Amino acid sequence: MAEIEKVMKILGEELAALDMSTNAEAFVRLVLEAVANKRKLQIPKATPLLSAAEKAAYLAGGFDLCECEEQIPGSLERAMAEYVALIATALPIHDAARLLGVHCETIQNRLHRRELFGIKHRGRWLLPRFQFHHEETLPGLEEVAPAIDPDAQPISLARFFHLPQNDLVIADAPAPLSPRDWLMAGYSPTRVAALARELILL
Predict the structure, then answer these.
(1) Same domain, 105 and 189
(2) Which residues pair with 99 in a beta bridge?
(3) What is the number of structural domains in the chain?
(4) pLDDT (tens digit, 9 = 90+) per residue, 5-54?
(5) CB 157 within 8 A of CB 82
(6) Angle at CA of residue 131, ends 77 and 113, nearest 5°
(7) How far out from the chain centre does Cα 143 lie?
Protein backbone atom coordinates (compact mmCIF):
# COMPACT_ATOMS: atom_id res chain seq x y z
CA MET A 1 0.00 0.00 0.00
CA ALA A 2 2.85 2.37 0.80
CA GLU A 3 4.27 1.89 -2.69
CA ILE A 4 0.87 2.59 -4.27
CA GLU A 5 0.48 5.74 -2.20
CA LYS A 6 3.94 6.85 -3.31
CA VAL A 7 3.07 6.29 -6.97
CA MET A 8 -0.23 8.17 -6.57
CA LYS A 9 1.58 11.06 -4.90
CA ILE A 10 4.10 11.28 -7.76
CA LEU A 11 1.30 11.02 -10.33
CA GLY A 12 -0.59 13.82 -8.62
CA GLU A 13 2.49 16.04 -8.64
CA GLU A 14 3.11 15.37 -12.33
CA LEU A 15 -0.51 16.12 -13.22
CA ALA A 16 -0.36 19.37 -11.25
CA ALA A 17 2.89 20.35 -12.98
CA LEU A 18 1.18 19.84 -16.35
CA ASP A 19 -1.78 21.95 -15.18
CA MET A 20 -4.17 19.09 -15.87
CA SER A 21 -7.74 19.59 -14.68
CA THR A 22 -7.84 16.26 -12.84
CA ASN A 23 -6.25 14.61 -9.83
CA ALA A 24 -4.39 11.32 -9.55
CA GLU A 25 -7.42 9.30 -8.43
CA ALA A 26 -9.59 10.59 -11.27
CA PHE A 27 -6.78 9.93 -13.76
CA VAL A 28 -6.46 6.32 -12.61
CA ARG A 29 -10.23 5.89 -12.93
CA LEU A 30 -9.98 7.08 -16.52
CA VAL A 31 -7.26 4.51 -17.19
CA LEU A 32 -9.36 1.71 -15.68
CA GLU A 33 -12.39 2.81 -17.67
CA ALA A 34 -10.39 2.81 -20.91
CA VAL A 35 -9.06 -0.69 -20.19
CA ALA A 36 -12.53 -1.99 -19.29
CA ASN A 37 -14.07 -0.52 -22.43
CA LYS A 38 -11.38 -2.08 -24.59
CA ARG A 39 -11.95 -5.47 -22.94
CA LYS A 40 -15.69 -5.28 -23.62
CA LEU A 41 -15.04 -4.52 -27.28
CA GLN A 42 -12.37 -7.19 -27.68
CA ILE A 43 -13.11 -9.60 -30.54
CA PRO A 44 -11.37 -12.85 -31.40
CA LYS A 45 -8.75 -12.87 -34.13
CA ALA A 46 -10.13 -13.73 -37.53
CA THR A 47 -9.37 -17.15 -38.95
CA PRO A 48 -6.41 -16.89 -41.36
CA LEU A 49 -7.58 -16.76 -44.96
CA LEU A 50 -4.38 -18.21 -46.40
CA SER A 51 -3.23 -21.80 -46.22
CA ALA A 52 0.31 -22.65 -45.11
CA ALA A 53 1.32 -23.24 -48.73
CA GLU A 54 -0.15 -19.90 -49.83
CA LYS A 55 1.63 -18.08 -47.03
CA ALA A 56 4.91 -19.71 -48.02
CA ALA A 57 4.42 -18.62 -51.62
CA TYR A 58 3.69 -15.02 -50.64
CA LEU A 59 6.65 -14.90 -48.27
CA ALA A 60 8.90 -16.26 -51.00
CA GLY A 61 7.71 -13.40 -53.18
CA GLY A 62 8.75 -10.84 -50.59
CA PHE A 63 5.35 -10.01 -49.08
CA ASP A 64 5.22 -9.21 -45.36
CA LEU A 65 2.34 -11.09 -43.74
CA CYS A 66 3.10 -10.09 -40.13
CA GLU A 67 0.17 -9.21 -37.90
CA CYS A 68 -0.24 -5.52 -37.16
CA GLU A 69 0.36 -6.03 -33.45
CA GLU A 70 3.70 -7.63 -34.22
CA GLN A 71 4.71 -4.74 -36.45
CA ILE A 72 3.76 -2.08 -33.93
CA PRO A 73 4.29 -3.46 -30.41
CA GLY A 74 2.45 -1.59 -27.69
CA SER A 75 0.39 0.50 -30.14
CA LEU A 76 -2.85 -0.27 -28.29
CA GLU A 77 -1.36 0.71 -24.94
CA ARG A 78 0.00 3.96 -26.42
CA ALA A 79 -3.37 4.82 -27.95
CA MET A 80 -5.15 4.16 -24.66
CA ALA A 81 -2.64 6.35 -22.81
CA GLU A 82 -3.13 9.13 -25.38
CA TYR A 83 -6.90 8.91 -25.00
CA VAL A 84 -6.76 9.09 -21.21
CA ALA A 85 -4.46 12.13 -21.38
CA LEU A 86 -6.74 13.74 -23.97
CA ILE A 87 -9.79 13.30 -21.74
CA ALA A 88 -7.96 14.35 -18.59
CA THR A 89 -6.85 17.67 -20.11
CA ALA A 90 -10.04 18.43 -22.05
CA LEU A 91 -12.30 21.28 -20.99
CA PRO A 92 -15.96 20.95 -19.97
CA ILE A 93 -18.28 23.38 -21.72
CA HIS A 94 -18.35 25.84 -18.82
CA ASP A 95 -14.53 25.94 -18.62
CA ALA A 96 -14.23 26.43 -22.38
CA ALA A 97 -16.76 29.25 -22.18
CA ARG A 98 -14.82 30.91 -19.38
CA LEU A 99 -11.55 30.51 -21.30
CA LEU A 100 -12.97 32.18 -24.41
CA GLY A 101 -15.02 34.73 -22.50
CA VAL A 102 -18.36 33.64 -23.96
CA HIS A 103 -21.58 32.06 -22.71
CA CYS A 104 -21.99 28.29 -22.45
CA GLU A 105 -24.72 28.49 -25.09
CA THR A 106 -22.17 29.90 -27.53
CA ILE A 107 -19.92 26.87 -27.02
CA GLN A 108 -22.88 24.52 -27.45
CA ASN A 109 -23.88 26.26 -30.68
CA ARG A 110 -20.34 26.07 -32.04
CA LEU A 111 -20.23 22.37 -31.23
CA HIS A 112 -23.52 21.91 -33.06
CA ARG A 113 -22.17 23.79 -36.10
CA ARG A 114 -18.98 21.69 -35.90
CA GLU A 115 -16.81 24.77 -35.42
CA LEU A 116 -15.35 23.15 -32.31
CA PHE A 117 -14.39 19.56 -31.55
CA GLY A 118 -16.09 17.82 -28.67
CA ILE A 119 -15.91 14.38 -27.07
CA LYS A 120 -19.02 12.97 -25.41
CA HIS A 121 -17.75 11.42 -22.17
CA ARG A 122 -19.96 10.18 -19.33
CA GLY A 123 -22.90 12.11 -20.72
CA ARG A 124 -21.19 15.49 -21.04
CA TRP A 125 -19.18 17.31 -23.68
CA LEU A 126 -15.43 17.75 -23.28
CA LEU A 127 -13.38 19.94 -25.62
CA PRO A 128 -9.79 18.80 -26.34
CA ARG A 129 -7.14 21.43 -25.70
CA PHE A 130 -5.38 21.02 -29.05
CA GLN A 131 -7.92 23.40 -30.61
CA PHE A 132 -7.11 26.23 -28.19
CA HIS A 133 -4.17 28.61 -27.94
CA HIS A 134 -4.03 30.76 -24.82
CA GLU A 135 -7.52 32.27 -24.51
CA GLU A 136 -8.59 31.76 -28.11
CA THR A 137 -9.36 28.97 -30.55
CA LEU A 138 -6.76 28.27 -33.22
CA PRO A 139 -6.95 30.83 -36.04
CA GLY A 140 -9.05 29.45 -38.88
CA LEU A 141 -10.45 26.57 -36.83
CA GLU A 142 -13.98 27.43 -37.93
CA GLU A 143 -12.92 26.55 -41.50
CA VAL A 144 -10.91 23.44 -40.63
CA ALA A 145 -13.26 21.79 -38.14
CA PRO A 146 -16.25 21.26 -40.49
CA ALA A 147 -13.93 19.64 -43.05
CA ILE A 148 -13.19 16.70 -40.78
CA ASP A 149 -15.34 13.59 -40.67
CA PRO A 150 -17.78 13.96 -37.73
CA ASP A 151 -17.13 10.31 -36.84
CA ALA A 152 -13.40 10.91 -36.47
CA GLN A 153 -11.74 9.31 -33.47
CA PRO A 154 -10.37 11.81 -30.91
CA ILE A 155 -6.87 10.28 -30.98
CA SER A 156 -6.73 10.54 -34.78
CA LEU A 157 -7.67 14.21 -34.55
CA ALA A 158 -5.12 14.97 -31.86
CA ARG A 159 -2.37 13.29 -33.86
CA PHE A 160 -3.40 15.13 -37.02
CA PHE A 161 -3.16 18.52 -35.34
CA HIS A 162 0.14 17.82 -33.57
CA LEU A 163 2.14 15.87 -36.17
CA PRO A 164 4.04 17.59 -39.03
CA GLN A 165 2.39 17.31 -42.45
CA ASN A 166 4.54 17.18 -45.59
CA ASP A 167 2.21 19.59 -47.41
CA LEU A 168 2.59 22.28 -44.75
CA VAL A 169 5.97 23.69 -45.71
CA ILE A 170 7.13 27.30 -45.60
CA ALA A 171 10.23 28.87 -47.08
CA ASP A 172 13.41 28.59 -45.02
CA ALA A 173 11.71 26.29 -42.49
CA PRO A 174 13.88 23.30 -41.50
CA ALA A 175 10.92 20.91 -41.46
CA PRO A 176 7.19 20.73 -42.27
CA LEU A 177 4.79 22.19 -39.74
CA SER A 178 1.96 20.54 -37.88
CA PRO A 179 -1.56 21.86 -38.62
CA ARG A 180 -1.63 23.41 -35.17
CA ASP A 181 1.68 25.25 -35.67
CA TRP A 182 0.65 26.25 -39.20
CA LEU A 183 -2.56 27.87 -37.97
CA MET A 184 -0.88 29.48 -34.98
CA ALA A 185 1.65 31.07 -37.35
CA GLY A 186 -1.20 32.70 -39.24
CA TYR A 187 -1.02 30.72 -42.47
CA SER A 188 -4.09 29.91 -44.55
CA PRO A 189 -6.50 27.43 -42.95
CA THR A 190 -7.66 26.40 -46.44
CA ARG A 191 -4.65 24.14 -46.90
CA VAL A 192 -5.21 22.49 -43.52
CA ALA A 193 -8.91 22.01 -44.33
CA ALA A 194 -7.93 20.32 -47.60
CA LEU A 195 -5.64 17.93 -45.72
CA ALA A 196 -8.39 17.28 -43.19
CA ARG A 197 -10.81 16.22 -45.93
CA GLU A 198 -8.28 13.67 -47.20
CA LEU A 199 -7.45 12.41 -43.73
CA ILE A 200 -7.89 8.68 -43.15
CA LEU A 201 -9.12 8.50 -39.58
CA LEU A 202 -8.48 5.13 -37.96
Answers:
(1) yes
(2) none
(3) 2
(4) 776 777 677 667 666 666 777 776 666 665 565 554 444 444 455 566 65
(5) no
(6) 110
(7) 19
